[in-house]
Amino acid sequence: MINTRILTQEFDYFAPESIKQVVELLERHGEGARVIAGGTDLINQMKEEKMSPSCLVNIMNVKGLRYIKEDEGLRIGAATKLRDVRAYCFKSRYVALYEAISSLGKPQVWNMGTIGGNLCNASPAADTAPPLLVFKARVKLVGKDGERELLLEDFFTGVNSTVLQPTELMVEIHLDPPGDGAGNAFLKVARVGADISKVSCAVFLKRQGRTCTECRVALGAVAPVPMRVKVVEEMIEGREIEESLVAKASEIVSEEVKPIDDIRSSAEYRRQVAAVTFRDVFWKAWDRAIGGKN
Amino acid sequence: MKKDPKDQLSNYEYQFIGKPVPRHDAWDKVFGRTKYADDFDMPGMLFGKVLRSSYPAAKILSIDTSGAEKMPGVAAVLTAKDVPNNETVTRFGQTHQVGGFEGLYRVLADKKVRFMGEAVALVAAETEEIAEEALARIKVEYEQLPGVFDPLEAMNPDAYQVGEGDSNIICNYQVRKGDVKEGFSRSHVVVENTYRVPFVEHAFLEPESGIAWIDDSEIITIRVSTQVIEHFRDVADVLGIPHNKVRVIAPMVGGGFGSKEDITVETFLALLTWKTGKPVKMTWTREGSIISSSKRHPYVMKYKTGATRDGKLMAMEAQLISDAGAHVYLSPWVLLYSTVDATGPYDIPNVKVDSYTVLTNNTFTSANRGFGAPQVCFAYESQMDELARRLSLSPLEIRKRNYLRKGDALATGRVLEYGVETEKTAIKALEALGEPSMPSSPTEKIGQGLASGMMSYGRMTFLHDTSRSYVGIELDGSVTVRCGVQDIGGGQASSLASIAAEILGVPMEEIKVFIGDTALTPIAGTTTATRMLYMSGNATLKAATEVKKSLLPKAAEMLEASPEDLVFRDKKVFVRGAPARAIPLADVVKACAADGVQLYNVAQFNAPFRELIDFKTGQGQVFPDFTFGSHAVEVAVDTETGKVRVLKLVACYDVGQAINPLSAEGQIEGGALYGLGYALTEEVILDKGITLTPSFSEYLVPTSVDAPHVKTIMLESRDGAGPFGAKGIGEPSCNSIAPAVANAVANAIGARILDLPLTPEKILRSLQKL
Ligand SMILES: Cc1cc2nc3c(=O)[nH]c(=O)nc-3n(C[C@H](O)[C@H](O)[C@H](O)COP(=O)(O)OP(=O)(O)OC[C@H]3O[C@@H](n4cnc5c(N)ncnc54)[C@H](O)[C@@H]3O)c2cc1C
Questions:
Q1: Which domain holds residue B758?
Q2: Fold of A182-288
C-alpha cells in the first residue's frame, strides 16, 4: 500500500555491530534482505512500494564503517554521514565533493544520509557520483565470498542497479590523491534550491602552465548511470587550453550525453545545459588548479 | 518593516491598533506546542481511510466490500448506499444561462466517477495499516469511459459529458460597457494575445486532517482543520439529522489558502463515527491531498487591448475560459471574480468580457488564494506592458494614465467609494526597487518589472454576508471574546484581540479569544474571501464598543465626570486631561455587576446586501470593496540555462489600516512568495486526468533558500470598509506578483512568455535556443 505518512510494510529488522554479522544476516535472509543506512532513499521507496524488503539490516551501528582518513588518497567509510564528508571536504583538495553534497538536499538530509547510500541507491542523479568518478574512486565491497574492489565507473549498471550481490555491502570509498597542480569543481542545475539535479557535472584536471595534463569529466542525470565523458577528456588532455577548445569540448559533451524527458526537464534542455554546465565547471576547476605558471 | 512616516496618518491616538506586536500564539508555534488537527488523539479511536477512484472517467459496475469487512480490526466499510443523503444539489441563483448552473455532489461515488481523486468507499479500522490493507481488499469493477481533459474540447456540444447534465459548460458571464468595436477603431495600437495559467496546488504544510467522536449528549463532534466550521450544516444534512446535532471545532489551521473552504474530511469522519460509535481520525497523505483536493483554476485568456497614441486605454475585450475540473464547487464564483477583475484597476471606456467555466475529468478546481483574480491580473498586466512597449511609454507612465481613482466606476458600473491608491503603490514600489543591478556574467540579463492589481475583500454582496462576535468583560477586568473564526495562520484571532484591547483599554495578554467552535462561539462565517477582519473585526468592534458604553454611566458616576470625558486605558478609567483621576477598570465592572448592568454584548455585522448582478451585461455591485497594490521585481536571467533569479522584490499595498503591522507584513511577504511560486515553478501537471506531480519532490514551492528578500511597503489610506478603515490583505497580497515577474523577464530578454510558470525551458525556447 502506498502511504507516505506511515510505513505499512512488515519486515524483520536487525542492527548488527560488525561487517561479518551484516554479511551473515544478508545471507541468512536471502533476496528479500536489504541494507539500510540513513534510510533517506530506502524508506521513501518502501512507503511508495517501490521496494518491499522482508528484512532490513541497519548498518549504522557497525563499527568501522564511519570514518574519513587520508591514506594514499582519501578513504571514506561507506556509512559516513554526508554531513561529515561535507565538513571534511570543505576547503580540502576534494572541494568538488563538498560542492556536490552542499547541493544535495539540505541539513536534514546531510544529517541522516550516507555517502554509501547515495552510491548504492544508484540514482542517475546521485550527486556524489560525478565528483567521485572524476576522483577515480574505487569502492570496496564485502560479501559472503570475501572482499573485492572496483572502480566506481564499473559499479553502476543502470537506473537503481549496481553490481552489488544480494549478500554484499559497500564498506569503503577510496579516492585517488589529487597530486600537484590539480583543480576540481562541481555544479548542478536544478529547479529550486533543494532539488534533484536536472544536470550535474564534475571536472578534475591537472594543469601545467597553459597545458592541461590530466582531465576527467563526469555528468549526472543525463544518462541511466552517472557517466564519464572520455572523448572529451582525451581531446583536452595534453592540450593548451583555449576558449575555442573548451567550447568545442562542450559541444561534444552535449552530443555524448543520453538524457531523457521526465517531469523535471526535457532531454533537449538537458543536452543544451549539460554543455554550458561542463564549460563553467571546467573553467572553475582550471582556475583552481594551482600548479605551473601561466 | 519600515514605515514611511510621510505616508502614514500617525497612529498616536491608538494604543494597540497599528502597533507591531508579536502574535500571542507565535512562540507556541515555534516550539511545536500548538495542537493542530492531527495532534489530537482519543482513546479507542479508529483510523479512517478513503478509497479513491482508479480512473478519471468510468462507470462503477459493482463494489464488493466483503473482503475488507471480514478483516479483523476493520470496524466499518462504507459505500454510497450507506450514506443517508449521498446526493446534494447546490443551485446558484436563478440564472441558467447555459447548461445546468447547479452542482451535483455525491459524498461517495455512485454510478459514475469523474476524476482520479474521487472518493468511492470509506474504511475505519483499528490501525492505519489495517485500514490501508482493507482498502486494497475492496473490489470495484469499473467500465472505463473516454473522459475529456481539455476545457476547450469539453465546450463542444458533442463532447464527452463529464457530469449527468447536458452540457459541460457550467456558466457564462458577460460584461458589456460602451462599444469595443468603436474603441478599437479609435486606438492607435491594439495588442492581442492568448495567455495560459496552470493548475496550482495550495501546498499548505498541514494536510487535511480531523478527528470525530460522539459526545455524552450524542452530538457528533468534529475537530478538523478547516476554513469553514459552518459546514456542520452540510454534514448534518448528509446524515439526515438536525443541524444542532453536529458540532465542528476548528483548532489552529496549518494553512488553508482556499482548499479547506470546501468540505475535506468532515463528512467522511462523521459517517464513520456515526456508523461505528467510536472516535475516528483521518489525515490525508500529501499525495492523497494533491491528487484529490481542489486546485487553482487553469485559464485560457484571450485578450485584446487598444490604446491611443498617448497611452489612453480605449477598449478591452477578453474571453476567459476556466477549467472547473470534475465538479462545480466554487467555479462559478471564482469565474465571477475573474470577470469583474478582468479589466484590472483601469478605467476603460469600452469593455467586453465573456467568460466560461467548463467541466472536465481533471481534478476539481475551487478556491485558491486570490480566487480568480491572479489569473486575469497576469493577463491584463502583461497586456499593459506590451502596450507600453509598442507606444514607447514606460510601464509606470501608461498605467498612471489609466488607473481608476476613488469615485470612478468599474466596467460593471460599480463606483469605488473607498480609497484607491494604486498609483501611489506603483510609484513607491518602483522607487524602492531602485536602479537595475549589474549583471554578474556576460550571459546574464537584468530586467525590472511592475504590475498592479486589484482584488476584492469580503464576500460577494448577493450572498448577504454576516458575522457575529461576543465580547464580555470579567469581574477582574479581563476580557473574553468569543467569535467563530477559523484562524488559518493569518492572525485572525490576534486581530480581534487587538480590537477589543483598543476599545476597552485592556492589555493584549488579558484578552482571551475563543475561536472556531459551532457550539460555543457565535457563528462568524468563513475564513475566506479576505473577509475575516472586515466582517468579524467590525462585529468585534461593535460588540466591544457596546460593552464600553454599558460601563460608561457607572464609571462616570464613580469618577464624577461626564461619560464623554472618560478614557479607557491600561485597565483603568481616566478623566481626560486629569490623569490623576483614575479608577481601576475592575472596580467599575464590579460596581456594574452589582447594579445588574449587562457585561457582554453579541454584535452582528452585516455587509452591504445586494442582489445578483445582470449576467448578460455584468452591471451591478458584486463586492463591498477592493484592495489595490503593486509589485515591482528585478530579475537576473541566465540566457544559457534559462534560470531566473529574483534579485529584488518590492510589495506595496494599501492596507487601509494595519491592525497589527507584523501580521499584515507577514501576509504581504507570504503573498509575494505564494505568487512567486506561481510565476516560476509551481504547476500541477495532469496527463489525461492523472496527476504527475503528486508530491513536493515534483511539485515545487519556493523554500527558504529560494526566497528573495521581500521589501514590504504598507500604505495606510485609512479608507477601507473594515474596522478603523482597514482593507483586507490576505488574498490581494499575492495578486500582482506573477505578472511583475513576467514583465521583468520580458524586460530582461526582450521576449514575452505567455504562459506560467516561467520555466527555464520556456525561456530558452523563447530565446530560440531550444
Ligand atoms: C528531501 C530529500 C532530498 C534529497 N536530495 C538529494 C539530492 O539533491 N541529490 C541526491 O543525490 N540525493 C538526494 N536525496 C537522496 C538521498 O538522501 C541520498 O541518496 C542519500 O545519500 C542516501 O543515503 P542513505 O544512507 O540515506 O541511504 P539509504 O536510504 O539507507 O539506502 C539507499 C540504498 O542504498 C543501499 N545501501 C545503503 N548503504 C549501503 C551499503 N553500505 N552497502 C550496500 N548497500 C547500501 C540500501 O539498501 C538502499 O537500497 C534526497 C533525499 C531526500 C529525502
A1: 299-460+612-766
A2: Enolase-like; domain 1 (3.30.390)
Per-residue pLDDT of B659-681, as tens digits, reads: 999 999 999 999 999 999 999 99
Write the class of the CATH domain A12-58.
alpha beta
What is the residue-wise DSSP string for B637-698?
EETTT--EEEEEEEEEEE-SS-SSHHHHHHHHHHHHHHHHHHHHT--B-EETTEES--STTT
ipTM of the complex: 0.94
The minimal CB distance from B285 to the residues A5, A191, A196 is found for A5
Do B594 and B635 fall into the same domain?
no
B129 contacts A8? CB cut-off 8 A: yes
Alpha helices in B422-537 (DSSP H): 422-433, 492-504, 532
Q: Of B283, B311, B342, which residue is a domain's last?
A: B283
Which residues of A are less than 8 Å from B770 in CB distance?
A: 266, 268-269, 272
Which residue, B606, B625, B650, sits at the end of a domain? B606
Residue B36: how many CA atoms within 13 Å on its side-chain side? 20
> Could you tell me which chain B residue has the CA closest to the CA of A196?
B697
DSSP state of A153: G
pTM: 0.96
Check CB contact under 8 Å for A1 and B706. no
DSSP code, position A242: -
The Cα angle at residue B183 between residues B182 and B187, in degrees rounded to 5: 115
| In chain A, alpha helices (H) | 19-29, 42-47, 82-89, 95-102, 107-112, 115-121, 129-134, 230-236, 243-256, 267-288
Residue of the CA atom closest to atom 2 of ligand 1: A105
Most ligand 1 atoms within 8 A of CB, residue of A109, A170, A172 to mutate: A109
Of A112-126, B279-293, B611-625, B707-721, the one with minimum mean pLDDT is B611-625
Torsion of CA B587, B589, B590, B595, to 10 degrees: 130
Residues B715 and B643 in one domain: yes
DSSP string for B739-750? HHHHHHHHHHHS
According to the CATH classification, is domain A68-175 in 3.30.465.10? yes
Q: What residues are paired with A143 via a beta bridge?
A: A146
User: In which element (H, E) is residue A169 found?
Assistant: strand A169-175
Query: Is the model's pLDDT at B7 over the cut of 80?
Result: no
